[in-house]
Amino acid sequence: MTRNTILIVDDHPLLRRGIRSLLQAQPDFHVIGDAGDGLTAMHLVEEHRPDVVVLDIVMPMLGGLDLLREMNRSPKLPTPPRTVVLSLHDDPAYVQQAVQLGAAGYVLKHSASAVLVTAVREALAGRFFSSCLVGENALPQLPAVAPKRQLDRRELLTTEERLLLQMMATGATEEQIAPRLGRQPLAIPILCRNIALKLGMREPSDVRSLAAQWAREQ
Fold it and tell me: In this predicted model, what pLDDT tens digit does every residue of 46-98 receive, in sequence order?
């Protein structure tokens, strides 16, 4: 299997380790390294030329947006890597600036555990992903790329989430589903919200419709 290479850039070691664990759990992802500042990251990008860079906006020595600028104009990078920005800021101005500099994704840190894998996959497929609302005029037109492997969206979900969809497709209620998953009924809406985030759906209530659609396709 050809694996997509990823570089992680963030000045918080614990967050870097968490992101590494999250991404390395995907069989087709390979984290080639990480950096705690933009200057070190720039050297690593030029040396290893990763497919995707996941980077924080606020970092010492060279911030994330400045790193984007440097990658775009580096003579050593005729094709800059796809970039997914991690940020604490949901201000549309930050999203707009990242988009203008060529970012392929914008993920709020509090939602990273649920949607970062999706954002990276969307970047690899040449599509923009944002975990916060952004106007259509801010969306970039990314150059078309050929994905290394056609992705079934079910692969984004955990085993528990897929079981939830299977039971929803049969018409089971949240109260009926919860004990089968070893969960309390109040946990089911949370699982639905995570599924919606991973699949880029606007409303968790759309998850039941998706379950029925996938059941018809089988």
Answer: 999 999 999 998 887 788 888 888 998 888 988 899 999 998 887 777 788 88
Q: Can you tell me which residue has the tokens 């801010």?
A: 138
The set of residues, in sequence order, having a beta carbon less than 8 Å from that of 201 and lying 6+ positions away, is 195, 207, 210
- Pairing assessment for the beta strands 105-108 and 129-130 based on DSSP bridges: parallel
48 token code pair: 């290893």
3-state secondary structure 111-163: HHHHHHHHHHHHHHCCCCEECCCCCHHHCCCCCCCCCCCCCCHHHHCCHHHHH
Residues 77 and 102 in one domain: yes
Query: pLDDT tens across 57-69, in order?
Result: 888 778 888 888 8
> Given the DSSP bridges, would you call strands 105-108 and 82-87 parallel, antiparallel or unpaired?
parallel
Q: How far is CA 206 from CA 145, 211, 212, in A?
A: 29, 9, 10
Residue 148: inside a domain, yes or no?
A: no
Q: Residue 214, SS3?
A: helix
Cα–Cα distance for residue pair 177/168, rounded to 1 Å: 8
Question: What is the number of domains present in the chain?
Answer: 2
Which residue range forms the structural domain that includes residue 98? 4-138
Do 130 and 162 fall within a single domain? no
Structure tokens at 129: 């992903």
Question: If you count them, how many residues does the chain have?
Answer: 218
